[in-house]
Amino acid sequence: MSRELLIAEIEKFYETSGISPVAESFVEQFLELLDIGEVRAAERDRSSSSGWKVNEWVKKGILLAFRIGKLIKVENECSDQFYDKHTLPTKNISIADEIRVVPGGTAIRRGAYIAKGIVVMPPSYVNVGAYVDEGTMLDSHSLVGSCAQVGKKVHISAGTQIGGVLEPVGAFPVIIEDEVMVGGNCGIYEGAIVRRRAVIGAGCIITGSTPVYDLVKGKIYRKEKKHPLIIPEGAVVVAGSRKAAGNFAAETNISLYTPVIVKYRDEKTDAATILEEALR
User: Is 237 left (phi over 0), alpha (psi -120 to 50) or beta?
Assistant: First the structure.
């Protein structure tokens, strides 16, 4: 089936309230392509100022899969019982996929693309529509949300949440480009884009509505109407604070949390963030 035909059918059935076997057949084919990374919720676009474009039809396909899905009992080797949409069971992974998933409560949903060489420590969760590229590490208690895009050789540290953004369909998902280091207990949400080789320090929360202060370049990065918040390439971001506005805030010494870029990546940073090859 051509990509153009698949897009047209997904768009048609998304706008149709009824459910038919034909619609389910197209959704099955769509999920198979999503599963192997042939289609993705966002992809590179050099003509865009952000360097990325959103594939709205892919998000519509995922939402359609939820709509037509029926609750079934999901069989599991453990004693626990699960009930979920029949269209979106857990991903079927074999030894040939060369993905290391350590036992202990991890779940990867169908329709998530997981490239070779990934290490997933327990417990972690990767949702439908996510794209995780080669050589990435997902450490314990990490979440990769629906439609989130994670590049090559990224380290997502323990306790970190990468938000997805499935709806609205035109909104950017969170995008983590290649060789990014995300420290423990971080949260990246609301379609923020983290450029390649950036370092997000432990405990940082980055959202589309959070201004990011660059102490090196003297800039403030914000989300604009049609432009996502972008963390620059190689930036080293730590949790910081800024004074709150107003007399009352001044009188009571109130400050607000904000991410702060304190430097840009150098050899010292590379040495501190290198991944242990033995873990792979």
Answer: beta
